[in-house]
Amino acid sequence: MKSKHTYLHHRISSLRADFAEMKIDAFLITFQPHLRYITGFSGSNGIALVTRDNAYLLTDGRYATQVKKETSGWKISITAQDLFDKLKEEKLLRPQMRIGFDGNTLVFTSYKRLKKIFPKVVFLPKVDTIERIAIRKDQYEIEFIKRAVEITDSVFMEILPLLKPGVSELDIAAEISYRHKIHGAEGDGFAPIVVSGAKGALPHGKPSEKKIKKGEMVTLDFGSVYNGYHSDLTRTVGIGSLSGESKKIYNTVLEAQLKAIESAKAGIAAKELDRIARDYINKKGYGKYFKHSLGHGIGLQIHEQPRLSVLSKAVLKNGNVVTIEPGIYIPESGGVRIEDDIVITDGYPEILNKSPKDLIIL
């Protein structure tokens, strides 16, 4: 595998290659996940400016050692000042320069400050500039996602014996967070979802002091972060005996997920992939209970492009890493969701999760 810095330099080159189309002289990066993607710097305070010929990275003294270890080829400025003020002091933005920035992430107050500090600079909001590059994961990124997935798979197998009547949802959520770190993760990729019984009808329900009961289904949705990269797993398991209807719902979701995965290859429209799963669930009579999109990209953020939904305009490409997570949620009754992380290829996708998907009844 190529070195980390080789991949990082390629990302900068890809960003510069878009300058002509965007009609800009430089691009200002202020959003931390974008900053980490382009520079490799994982600190919480920093901005970067990529021009046609140079690359500047500004941060504060807390990260003076870290930034040099994590980056290569950047002109680094360490300051105790506000970073925008340091940008002015270094005279990196000249009058009439056309500076692109991410219009989705730069907050309005920061934009107003830039306009005040640099009144003669032209600031141009751009959408999905970094995302267009990051949407296709390189091998370096995929290896970190795979490790995050391995950690989460291990935690799932360890959690299964703990799912018993009388144990609270919060107890299980706490065990997930603890075990992620025990296995080497930086932490949770998001707050773990553990919902049982009728609460399973809430796609993003929060764990509570509710005790798990016999005859209920429990939905577990959680993921870890490894070296900045996320995993995302959902499994639904039964506690004690389940009704025939519950089993039917589970098998419907599983079959919908398998059909979507089978069709998930480079060249398919994201909305078509969503339709494949949705049509199957509709056919089985549960269409109105599939209340969210089929999936989303993952990477340095838990939700990234491409979005797999009926509204998406994306076409899947080699190197996309996405979730496939159909679900059925019936109010006052419960729900089922099954989710895997996959890597898109020209043929059958690489399924990263190894956790079993056949219905587990404990």
Account of the 3D structure:
It is a single chain. The protein has two domains: 4-134, Creatinase/prolidase N-terminal domain (Creatine Amidinohydrolase, Chain A, domain 1); 139-351, Alpha-Beta Complex (Creatine Amidinohydrolase), CATH 3.90.230.10. Helix content is 35%, strand content 22%. It has helices at residues 4-17, 19-22, 32-39, 64-70, 83-89, 108-117, 129-134, 139-159, 169-182, 244-263, 270-283, and strands at residues 26-29, 46-51, 55-60, 75-79, 98-102, 122-126, 187-188, 193-196, 217-222, 224-226, 229-230, 233-238, 295-297, 304-308, 321-324, 327-330, 334-337, 340-343, 350-351. It has a six-stranded mixed β-sheet with strand order 4-3-2-1-5-6, sandwiched between helices. Strands 7-10-11 form a three-stranded antiparallel β-sheet. A hairpin with a 2-residue loop joins strand 10 and strand 11 (229-230). Helix 8 (139-159) crosses helix 9 (169-182) and helix 10 packs antiparallel against helix 11. The longest helix is centred in the middle third of the chain and has 21 residues, at 139-159. The model has no long low-confidence stretch (mean pLDDT 96).
